[in-house]
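S2.1 Query sequence (Response regulator transcription factor)
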Amino acid sequence: MNENMRPDDEDALRGELRALRSSTPFPVLFGGSVADGRMLLSGFAGTRSRVLRGLAIDARCGLGGRAIAEQRPEVAPDYFASSHITHDYDVQVAGEGIESLLAVPVVVRGVTRAAIYGGLRARRPIGDVMAGTVLRSATRLAREIEIRDEVDRRVQLIERADAEPVARSTSESERITESYLLLRELAAQVADASVAERLRAVERTLRSLAAVEDVDPSITLSPREFDVLSHVALGCRNAEIAERLSLSVETVKTYMRNLMAKLEVSSRQQAVFEARRRGLLP
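Output structure tokens follow.
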């Protein structure tokens, strides 16, 4: 995929750390992305020195390495006395004055992609309430990375598309339709405005790939009618369409009645067939 399409995931991590600074009792927060079993610390909030910056954490080494490898939060209320972790990074932890530490992995589809730490400059227990905010932050970050991964995967349809128009089978058209509808849903969910705009740009490109040249000009579907009919073409029921488009089931039914009247048909299947015949659907 074009590397310019995907924003730097480190920015999303740093954004979460900034948000945590005002919503968690941890005075020290840091984290990094994981690649090839190693995490490089790249995001920091509340640190007093540069001792942690650029530190590479190997899987199973230290508290964070254990969290990465086992894909679960790890806690050391008395870090230097802990017997269940290695102490490869004691010098750096001590240099920042941390005595109690929490490490939470960011797991996406079964793969650890990052980790977030919360540190205290005193030996004290780290309970569920204190850890909860960091856990929720890790969950948000995992969702953000998952959405970005989905953009990468879906945009492959564009990169593989030939420059010359080609005849597509119904199944290929349905996959493209499913892709741009999903991208619209993801754009509505993602918090990062730049990512949302890129999602919408990819959606528009996919729509142009699916566009049909010979469109009947006598019938015009509203954007919502088009969305509803596109989902019907994918086999979605009214309840599923309503959930995907954040509409009520009755509103979906109203859109269906309106577009069926425009197409002069009496069933959902006929509506899809007629819309495709008139070039309104790919």
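Residues 128-160 form the longest helix (33 residues). The longest strand covers residues 111-120.
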